[in-house]
């Protein structure tokens, strides 16, 4: 490359490493860059981050829960927004539950920031990440972790909304679907708790209804509906609501007369059902706001950890409740 | 760390770098590792890959298309399978369309293998990746790229299946929904072409029907249904099929009498619709098979690029067609 650019090897190294200690003229710099391009030279991010002490990499462990359309869109917006701020987002995949071992594996890539969706990272993991050079650790889940910024996603609020709505509609014997699929507990447990809290001290009862996402399971539940004596159900989300509504319909249970149904997520499919599905609209933080928060935290790594509540929940009342 | 382990700094470095040139006793090795653990030492993947010349990182650019449930499950299975083979999967996000510039950015992370979903990577990008140390480049899309292994996903077959099925059911004026959403062209274009190929030389006509994923757009299309004079529609996938079926139903168009409908993807929701939705079941390669192919390619980087057709398509006939 030095020969092609007509300069010394040291000059090539100074230019490509962007060394500021040595003054190099603009034309020389340009000749080196042109030669590098012609030869297909690619800088080594690893070497660069070793020199700089940090990278522009924002590491996100891939979620351990099945990603629905709402959350998928949120992740995608976030990646675009961080990309605009010149960060490279990498999703670190394949690991099991998060923990301190996982944090060590993430730390090996020396990310400048780590954004952890869901639960499981402990204070020890945060320390490992910070000691290895992460300037910001941000969790995105049900509770805050010592030493990390926290964006609290309070899924109790989703259940609370749904429970209050059904109560206000005059329902008193309220079922709550609890998906049996792995990885959804961190959403379903607080949603159930939220319904219980909303109805605490009233004359209403709350019944947990475990359900796998299968037609046969839904049919079995619908067959027991009358003996359960329920008059309403919070169906966890819109997809489970669709599954249950079909089974109740096939069983001759009228919606909303015999059973009021409310979902969550406000997906398109709820508007396509008949009766139209009532739902809890969930407001996630915008990708742009979150990207700015990460950037801010990276620029000021000494700042005290902040906690923000970021999940909004409001009922969209349609015909099924 | 040397002090804690009671050894020289050179010994610490030999042990942590796993240097084979110097013989170090097992107890000493153990003391160093224990001290490292106690001090929260995390090896630097960057430094390690600089020494080793390559990493265990499989890089996948994040897909540029909206990921549906079928593809999402496939990605997740693949990550787990590669994790079992001791690879770290990172999804590189945020970039726009793939191209040689994108390949340079990926190359900076010095992945040992790169797995590219969708189209856009060119032979130049493959060269950049290989020159920077990637032992295997595998594309997962509509066509093969010079120098890379190719897993061909032939979405024409999906359309071909659907078209033949509707023809066999006696339909002759066949509409094909074409989503207007960005990023879906690489699926919708070959699916439409597949229908045309299936019906080429017959007395059937094929009409492309652009449609956005919105209730109002579907209602407008349904309102024109009778003047279009169609008797069947391949609805791109099950979600679009649900949208269109609802609009046709509201317009009084009977399914399948006035319009046979077939979707694709074989999602649960199709079984929940009434009439039950006919669909094209799409068979993607198993995550395990694909992980093994990647591993094989990494171990034998000199092997000639291989091409495999990996997408299977079969009709699941239900009540809507």
Description:
The structure is a homodimer of 321-residue chains. Chain A is of the alpha/beta class. Chain A has three domains: 2-43; 52-153 and 285-310, Response regulator (Rossmann fold), CATH 3.40.50.2300; 156-283, Rossmann fold (3-Layer(aba) Sandwich), CATH 3.40.50. In chain A, 43% of the residues lie in helices and 19% in strands. Chain A is built from 14 helices and twelve strands. Chain A has helices at 2-5, 9-16, 26-38, 45-52, 69-84, 100-107, 123-131, 156-168, 185-199, 215-223, 225-228, 238-250, 268-272, 287-299; strands at residues 57-61, 88-92, 113-117, 136-141, 149-152, 173-179, 205-211, 232-234, 260-264, 278-283, 307-309, 312-316. In chain A, the strands form two sheets. In chain A, strands 2-1-3-4-5-11 form a six-stranded parallel beta sheet. The longest helix of chain A has 16 residues, at 69-84. Chain A starts with a helix and ends in a 5-residue tail after the last strand. The model of chain A has no long low-confidence stretch (mean pLDDT 88). Chains A and B meet through α4, α5, β2, α6 and α7 of A and α4, α5, β2, α6 and α7 of B. β2 of chain A pairs antiparallel with β2 (88-92) of chain B.
């Amino acid at each position: 490359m030095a020969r092609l650019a007509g300069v010394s090897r040291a000059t090539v190294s100074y230019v490509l490493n962007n060394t500021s200690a040595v003054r190099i003229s603009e034309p020389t710099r340009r000749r080196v860059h042109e030669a590098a391009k012609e030869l297909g030279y690619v800088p080594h991010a690893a070497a660069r981050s070793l020199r700089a002490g940090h990278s522009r990499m924002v590491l996100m462990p891939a979620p351990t829960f099945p990603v629905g359309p709402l959350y998928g869109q949120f992740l995608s917006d976030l990646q675009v927004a961080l990309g605009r701020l010149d960060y490279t987002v990498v999703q670190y995949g394949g690991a099991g539950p998060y923990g301190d071992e996982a944090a060590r594996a993430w730390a090996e890539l020396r990310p400048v920031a780590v954004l952890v969706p869901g639960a499981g990272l402990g204070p020890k993991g945060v320390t490992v990440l910070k000691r290895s050079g992460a300037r910001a650790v941000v969790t995105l889940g049900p509770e805050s972790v010592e030493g990390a910024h926290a964006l609290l996603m309070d899924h109790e609020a989703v259940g609370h909304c749904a429970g209050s709505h059904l109560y206000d509609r005059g329902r008193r014997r309220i079922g709550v679907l609890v998906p049996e699929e792995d990885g959804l507990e961190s959403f379903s447990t607080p949603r159930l708790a939220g319904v219980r809290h909303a109805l605490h001290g009233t004359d209403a009862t709350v019944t947990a209804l475990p359900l796998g996402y299968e037609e046969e399971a839904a049919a079995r539940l619908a067959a027991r509906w009358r003996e359960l004596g329920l008059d309403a159900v919070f169906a966890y989300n819109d997809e489970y609501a669709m599954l249950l509504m079909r089974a109740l319909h096939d069983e001759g249970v009228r919606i909303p007369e015999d059973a009021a149904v409310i979902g969550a997520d406000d997906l398109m499919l709820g508007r396509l059902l008949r009766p139209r599905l009532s739902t809890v609209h969930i407001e996630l933080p915008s990708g742009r706001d979150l990207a700015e928060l990460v950037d801010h935290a990276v620029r000021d790594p000494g700042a005290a950890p902040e906690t923000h509540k970021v999940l909004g929940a409001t009922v969209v009342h349609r015909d099924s409740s």
